[in-house]
Specification:
InterPro entries: Vps62. Pfam families: Vps62. The chain has 341 residues and is an alpha+beta fold. It has one domain (7-337). It has helices at 7-17, 34-38, 176-182, 282-293, 298-319; strands at residues 20-22, 41-45, 53-54, 71-75, 89-94, 101-113, 117-124, 127-135, 142-154, 160-167, 170-175, 185-186, 190-195, 202-203, 211-217, 221-228, 237-239, 244-248. A six-stranded mixed beta sheet has the order 11-10-9-6-5-18. Strands 1, 12, 13, 14 and 17 form a five-stranded mixed beta sheet that branches. Strand 15 and strand 16 (221-228) form a beta hairpin. Helix 4 crosses helix 5. The longest helix is centred in the C-terminal third of the chain and has 22 residues, at 298-319. The chain is globular and about 70 Å long. The two termini are 24 Å apart.
């Protein structure tokens, strides 16, 4: 078994393979640094409000083990748009004994995750009659957003073996063949990773990148739903080969090659508030769908009413995750420790 990557190996791999994060030109919630986010936050101690800290430094954040929901961050509204001039990729280098590769996980942070957009299609006899994209605000919104793209490096050859992308909780792996076919490579080795509009899920290319497909009925009438994850060229770009910070490489601890680990990595609580909630009735979502589709025939109005209500009820469970609380700390998320399935 080949030894894990050295610090020099990792720096070389990042310089050679660091991805280019491509934002949508209409993105309202761009990336920012942790330091910038904290400068617009208040650390809340629910057990002792006298210990709240306005604009905490990272070394003032509580460390693990986590005590329920004792602490959280209350964020100022002006932090929602982010601040791209401060943005960087935060690299968690993952390797454990027995693996012949190292995953360089480039984590991207945004102060806010925007609303979802859905494409609804009305069906008559299983054929599309009307179609429309609907702004689902506030569904899908939450404070703070962590997404990542991982470059898998062979420990022996030091070459890229593939790419892992986060897509709304899913982790999609692309081997070398898929990378060559599906990714744009800048200067032959830097993959372009497309960040979806508002939601920041990562994709290998341009397009609507549909997800969360649902269909209710079809004959005599029915309804199709897809979540739209729009990606496009022309927006801001983050070159992760130059704008990055390695924040974890556990096997190097205690060695001369060890990286300085920022204190915020050990913060186990939400990057955002606790106890927030989205309130939307099924009828409200049903009315959105009906207005967007605008069926003109009485027959369609009659037969689509029940499918729309059924689908709206189903989607409330998909899109309303009970709150718009902040995202979980990255070190508490499964991919951080190599659990991608």
């Amino acid at each position: 078994m080949a030894p894990p990557l050295s610090r020099s190996d990792m720096d070389t791999a990042i310089a050679k393979y660091g991805p280019i994060l491509q934002l949508h030109p209409d993105e309202q919630y761009v990336n920012c640094s942790i330091e910038w986010m904290l400068s617009h936050s208040t650390l809340i101690d629910t057990k002792d409000k006298t210990k709240n800290i306005v604009h905490p430094r990272e070394d003032q954040l509580p460390q693990g083990p986590k005590q329920g929901t004792r602490y959280y961050l209350q964020v100022e509204d002006l932090a929602k748009p982010g601040n791209f001039s401060t943005a960087k990729a935060y690299v968690n280098a993952f390797w454990r004994w027995g693996l012949d590769y190292t995953d360089l996980q480039f984590w991207f942070f945004s102060g806010y995750n925007g609303h979802g957009t859905a494409r609804f299609s009305s069906l008559v006899e299983d054929k599309v009659e009307h179609q429309a994209d609907i702004d689902l605000a506030p569904l899908g919104e939450h404070w703070a957003d962590w997404e990542y793209a991982a470059i898998r490096i062979d420990n022996t050859s030091k070459e890229m073996m593939g790419i892992m992308l986060s897509e709304h909780g899913n982790n999609i792996f692309f081997d070398k063949t898929a990378v060559a076919k599906q990714f744009k490579l800048v200067n032959g080795s830097h993959p372009v990773v497309y960040s979806s509009l508002n939601g920041h899920a990562n994709f290998p290319g341009l397009g609507p990148n549909f997800s969360e497909h649902h269909q209710v009925l079809g004959k005599p009438a029915g309804l199709n739903f897809n979540l739209v994850n729009s990606t496009a060229d022309g927006g801001l770009q983050l070159d992760c080969s130059t704008r990055y910070q390695v924040i974890a490489a556990d096997w190097l601890k205690g060695t001369p090659d060890a990286y300085d680990i920022p204190a915020w990595v050990g913060y186990p609580y939400r990057w955002g508030p606790e106890g927030t909630a989205i309130h939307m009735k099924v009828k409200t979502l049903s009315d959105f769908i009906k207005a967007a589709l605008g069926p003109k025939e009485f027959f369609e109005i009659l037969v689509l009413d029940d499918p729309i209500t059924l689908l709206a009820a189903e989607l409330m469970h998909v899109l309303v995750k009970s709150d718009i609380n902040g995202a979980a700390a990255p070190a508490t998320q499964a991919p951080w420790t190599g659990h991608y399935s």
